[in-house]
Amino acid sequence: MSNLEAMSPDPSQTGDFASNSPAGRPVDPPPAPAAPEPAAIASGAAANDTIFGRILRGEIPCDAVYADDLCLAFRDVNPQAPVHLLVIPREALANLGDAGGQHRELLGHLLLVAAKVARQEGLEGWRTVINSGAEAGQTVFHLHVHVIGGRPLAWPPG
Ligand code: AMP
Known about the structure:
This protein has 158 residues and is an alpha+beta fold.
């Protein structure tokens, strides 16, 4: 399947978050969020400067598997399993620690897209991981959801 095909919405897979989508549009964005708090603006500016910000701006390539108004999903360049995808918001948030109430719908959307792309890859089970902070292993400070699968996954994680 080409990336363009992969990025086309699949109404049977999009669930509630796309039920009111007009034709030709993958997913309706949630209502306009409240104005971000100053701290979120500051951290967002920092997140823009990451490698994922550069991918979003088209400055460097990625192997995209899904895109819509709110997020982009692409293959991890250093996969830890046969399937390893990243789902990132277009909005520049450093991590979950920078999310507030105004991001409620965006965060739900990212998880629904994570499930969508996992199924798109043929996975029946998968792991979603969101590292928040260097202590948790975060290396790219632009919020991202890892979607990992295609092999047995041990628990607890390292
Ligand atoms: P984390 O350690 O949770 O911050 O995850 C960052 C992930 O981004 C790692 O799994 C990296 O392999 C991945 N990564 C870094 N640069 C790129 C890139 N240019 N394209 C795709 N994945 C990347």
